Structures are given as C-alpha cells and as structure tokens.
Amino acid sequence: MQRGWNDLAGRLLLTAAALLHRTVASRVARERWQLRRNAALRAANRRGVPVPALAAGLGLSEGWVRQVLNGKKPPVIEEAA
C-alpha cells in the first residue's frame, strides 16, 4: 500500500514540476509576463501617472520606463533606479 501512495505522490510532484516549468520557468512565459507588465505601464501612464512615479514603483530607471512607453524594447539587463 505504501508503494502506491509513493507512486501517486511522485506523479503529482512530476505534474506540478511540469506545470511550473511551462508557466513560470520558460522563456516564453517570462516574456508574456513582461509584455503584460509593459502594457500595464503604458495604461498607467495614459491615466496620468508620471514617468518618475512609474520608475520608482518598479525600481527601474526613468530611461528604461520611457523606452517601454515609446514601444521600444529595453535592454535585457534592467537598470536599477
């Protein structure tokens, strides 16, 4: 009986690892989250939040935030403000 529970637990852990790999660890998933973040930045800016406040809220430089707002792809290494 113990072997059956261990097998079931192992399969559940494998499923959880595969789910995390596809949703959190993959490069594509990370890019999707960055696209969502950038869209939220643009929406906040359109609603009147100034660039310095956006940069401070994310801990990034104002130049980086301006690049995102202008639709340019920022550098891979994000600067700290």
Residue share in β-strands: under 5%
Number of helices: 4
SSE order, one letter for each helix or strand: HHHH
| Structure class | mainly alpha
Low-confidence stretches: none
Specify the biggest β-sheet: none
**Overall 3D geometry?**
rod-shaped
CA-atom Rg in angstroms:
20 Å
Looking at how many chains there are and whether they match, the oligomeric state comes to single chain
Distance between the termini: 57 Å
The total beta strand count reads 0
Q: Helical proportion?
A: over 70%
| Mean model confidence by pLDDT | 80
What topology does this entry show?
Elements: H1 2-25, H2 27-46, H3 51-58, H4 62-69
What can you tell me about this protein's structure?
The chain is an all-alpha fold and 81 residues long. Helix content is 74%, strand content 0%. The chain has four helices and no strands. It has helices at 2-25, 27-46, 51-58, 62-69. Helix 3 packs across helix 4 (62-69). The radius of gyration is 20 Å and the shape is rod-shaped. The model has no long low-confidence stretch (mean pLDDT 80).
